[in-house]
Amino acid sequence: MRVLTGLQPSGKLHLGNYFSAIKKILDYQSKEELFLFIANLHALTTFRSKEELKNFTLECAIDLLALGVDPKKTVFWVQSDVPEVTELTWYLSQSITVSQLQLAHSFKDKVAKGFVPGAGLFTYPVLMASDILLFSAEKVPVGKDQKQHLEFARDIAERFNTQFGSVLTIPEPDIDENTATVPGVDGAKMSKSYKNTIDFFGTEKEIKKKVMSIVSDSKAVEEPKDPETSVIFQIHSLFLSPSEKESQIEKYKRGGAGYGDLKKDLLDSILTHFVSFRSKREELAQNLDYVHQVLKEGKEKAQTVAQAKIIDVRKTLGIYPF
Ligand code: ADP
Ligand code: TRP
Questions:
Q1: Between 259-285 and 50-67, two packed helices, what is the crossing angle to 10 degrees?
Q2: Which residue lies with its CA nearest to atom 8 of ligand 2?
Q3: In which domain, by residue range, is 174 found?
């Protein structure tokens, strides 16, 4: 089965991304045919600077390779390297109405926050449908926030097949409705936009500073503490086996451990969990030629699939040359 997903290079990866999205993608890699790309064209809709887009694109590639994306198993490329995707976007834009696109939550949310949208933000879901349909993806793992975009992709494919001829595969969404929301240091959902993230590839000093800033109540060292309501524990439990979890719960309930100690335990778990990924990351950052080579090979594999599909689509539409 062909599984495809994209990640926007819009900032540093954090524990929320890791425990919900990235671990799941890596799980697919060993079982299915995985297509994974860096959605740099989508990131243009919230463009800040050329330097930032370049840095985040490269860092995203390095991070994912360090975390275990294996280019021997997975087709891994940068979206803009396969320009067929923008051609297909134009064709697909005939198969969705303006009033449908006006219903997009992500678009409406940004506008409600005062963002002045370009036409690119409005047609964002069509580019996303194109990413999926160009590669005939059967399954698309995404976060809950992308559910409506997946529905657009299915609608577009169905309408296109009816209007012009059956050439597009209808994709199935793969959304974990129950994925726990990882809290940030302030207790709200961990998110780049709330500036409350713990970025696991930051320096040890940065990670320590973030962990030490996690909110807690003012219970004294000797008092028993409630793990259920503790943000420190909610994050920590993501790293723990069932038996480790039990003994940590015990430590909270017993009293005698201050929040400073409990944060120190969490910090140790984060550093231990990512130690080998961090050294792999440092190695890759010193070997950018290799990273570019991986992306080039990924581009070639992705483009072979994309070109075959775009030829079918052009034929179906009667695009010149015939
Ligand atoms: P951010 O909110 O920091 O901008 P993204 O929107 O880039 O994160 O999210 C990328 C992926 O990580 C999505 O699949 C999203 O659902 C998931 N994700 C992001 N933050 C969290 C979180 N706090 N808890 C669980 N999943 C998250
Ligand atoms: N819009 C997705 C996000 O912000 C990223 C994305 C772009 C994507 N194209 C895709 C995800 C195609 C899955 C399939 O998270």
A1: 100
A2: 6
A3: 2-180+288-317
